[in-house]
Amino acid sequence: MFKSYRFIKPMSDINVTPFVDVMLVLLIIFMVTAPLMEQGIEVQLPEEKAESVNLEESFVITIKKDGKVYLKKQLIPLKLLESKLMEIFSGRKFKEVYIRADKGNSYGYVMKIMAAVKKAGITRVGLVTEYME
Fold it and tell me: Which pLDDT tens digit goes with each residue over 42-96?
C-alpha cells in the first residue's frame, strides 16, 4: 500500500548545454557581421544638385565608346597621355582635369586613364556627367 520513494539528490553540476548553444549563436552573429563593419562608417550623404562647370574654360579629357582618348579636341594615343599631360601642366600651380567618358566604356579602362592622369602629377580629377533633375 505504501510505496517507498527514494529521495532524489539535488544535482550540483551546472548544465552547460544552453550556455554552449548561446555561445555558438553569438559566434555565428559575430562572424556574419564582422566583415560588414570593416567597410567603413555609415553616413547619409546630402542630396544636392551639382554645381555646373564651364567646360569651355577647363581642361577636358574625352574617352569615346571605342576607347579613343582626346585631349581637349585632339586625338592622342593612350601611351602618350601621361607625357603629354606632364608637358601641359609642368608650369601650372593649379592642376585640374575633367574626364568625360562614354558610359559604354569599362570601369577598368576609365581607371587606366585616371591612373595616367595621376602619374602625370595632376592633383584634381573631376568626372563629367549629365545633369539629371
Answer: 434 344 466 666 655 678 888 888 888 888 778 889 899 899 988 888 887 888 8
Which of 3.40.50.1970, 3.50.80.10, 3.40.50.1820, 3.30.420.270 would CATH assign to domain 60-127? 3.30.420.270
Query: Residue 63: which residues within 8 A CB-CB, separation 6 or more?
Result: 69, 70, 99, 100, 101, 102, 105, 109, 110, 113
- Helices H, strands E: what count in the chain? 3, 5
Residue 95 CA to residue 125 CA, distance in Å, equals 9
The grid coordinates of residue 74 equal: 585632339
> Which residue type does 89 have?
F
For residue 67, the one-letter residue type is G
The grid cell for 28 is 555565428
Q: Report helix angle 78-89 to 107-119, nearest 10.
A: 40
Is the pTM above the cut of 0.90? no
Q: CA neighbours within 13 Å on the CB side: how many for 97?
A: 27
